[in-house]
Amino acid sequence: MQFLRHPLLSPAPGTQRELVSLHYGQPGPSSAGKAYIQASLHGDELPGMLVAHHLRQQLGALDDAGQVCGDIVLVPMANPIGLSQFMLHAHLGRFELTTGENFNRHYPDQIATVAAAVEPQLGPDPAANVALLRRALKAAVLASPVETELQSQRRTLMGLSCDADIVLDLHCDAQAVMHLYTETPCWPDCEPLARFLGARLTLLAQDSGDNPFDEACSQVWWKWQQHFGGRFPIPQACLSATVELRGATDVSHELAADDARRIVDFLRWRGLIRGDRPALPEAMGDARPLAGSMPITAPKPGVLTFLKDVGSEVKAGDVLAHVIDPITAEVTELKSPVDGLFFARDFLRFANAGMRVAKVAGHEARRTGKLLGAR
């Protein structure tokens, strides 16, 4: 295993943060493929960090035994900026305090630059095209200018991940079931991952808006396909998924060790780890459009109490929660707008007017525009 340090741009004299990456197996052309896994891009989402702790133990043992035949890169903590942000003892790891930007948005786009650089060299061999595009993309990412610490963090993460076959971005919701986000072109390759992780739900979109990390890794391939208009064979060469590891307080060794084992099983199934290929598990859920994930909003402020647990199948009109005005004793019912899976809810129990407090995944696309909220 290689332990590498990646210094970030210093924001002020006397300060310096860094990212650390752990490298297992065999990088380069002889590799059986590359997987990139990172934890806690939102610095206050900690289940992924504990999963990474167990992954490094499991991958380390496999690497020492010579069983890692792919190139596996693990970033056990992907956001030192957000990890260090506290205010009045509250951890604020989702948005950078300097700019207010979400750490999981606004990753730079090198698609047109790379397309122009490599077009004269593209040909009829899909594998050769993928290798050429990956080399050019990595060079473009690493050469891109940065002016801030946040930009240098984004560039470092993209430089480590942009040439991978598999990208897993480990997150969590507030209170939720295990679920995934991926782009629609990735679903055929993501479906086995959902099975191995026991995901209840995978939410699909194509370019959901504001360029989150996972889409920045996967969208280059289908956008190059569109750019070149089918003149060159370019496969969807990256499966990138956001893995929502249940809720923010689901931080236990039992869950994390099991999640790490399931990820290792998937990597073995994909051929990056030697040994008997594990059987594909039964599906625990299905895929639904991200545009069918309906936010439940509190129209009035008050004490929030839920009547349904996450994981419940609900019908349109079912009451999911009450918002109670402590002064007037008025009770406002929050109802599901669709039939679907009640898959996530907030852990706060006082709702401001207009606050999104829960999500129900329906089967039909109903929303348009930017599909990912800031939260």
Reconstruct the topology from this structure.
Layout: E1 2-7, E2 18-25, E3 34-39, H1 47-64, E4 71-75, H2 80-83, E5 86-87, E6 90-91, H3 111-118, H4 126-143, H5 149-161, E7 166-173, E8 175-176, E9 179-183, H6 187-197, E10 201-205, H7 213-228, E11 239-247, H8 253-269, E12 286-289, E13 293-297, E14 302-306, E15 312-314, E16 319-324, E17 331-335, E18 340-345, E19 350-351, E20 356-361
Parallel strand pairs: 3-4, 3-7, 7-11, 9-10, 10-12
Antiparallel strand pairs: 1-2, 2-4, 5-6, 8-18, 9-11, 13-20, 14-16, 14-19, 15-18, 16-17, 18-20
Q: What series of H and E elements makes up the topology? A: EEEHEHEEHHHEEEHEHEHEEEEEEEEE
Task: Kindly give the count of domains.
Answer: 2
CATH H-level homologous superfamily name of the largest domain = Zn peptidases
Decide which structural class fits the backbone: alpha+beta
User: Taking Cα atoms only, what radius of gyration do you get, to the nearest Å?
Assistant: 21 Å
Note poorly predicted spans. none
Number of helices: 8
Major sheet strand order: 1-2-4-3-7-11-9-10-12
